[in-house]
Amino acid sequence: MLEEKLKEAIIGELERQAADRPQALKLQGASEANRSEELIVNGRIDLAALVMVIAGSVAGGP
Fold this sequence. Notes:
Elements: H1 2-20, E1 25-28, E2 40-43, H2 47-59
Antiparallel strand pairs: 1-2
Helix pairs in contact: 1-2
């Protein structure tokens, strides 16, 4: 359960970042990532934002 929640939080944040900066970040396989264990990420990731989302997910945030 926690693993699924974390995976959803990470994928959601990466999708958000890719939508905000499509020239800087591209994702492949995001729609299938919940059913598989692979996601192809090409570009720059805002780690601070990603860490906050993961921490929120672990703490029980939205």
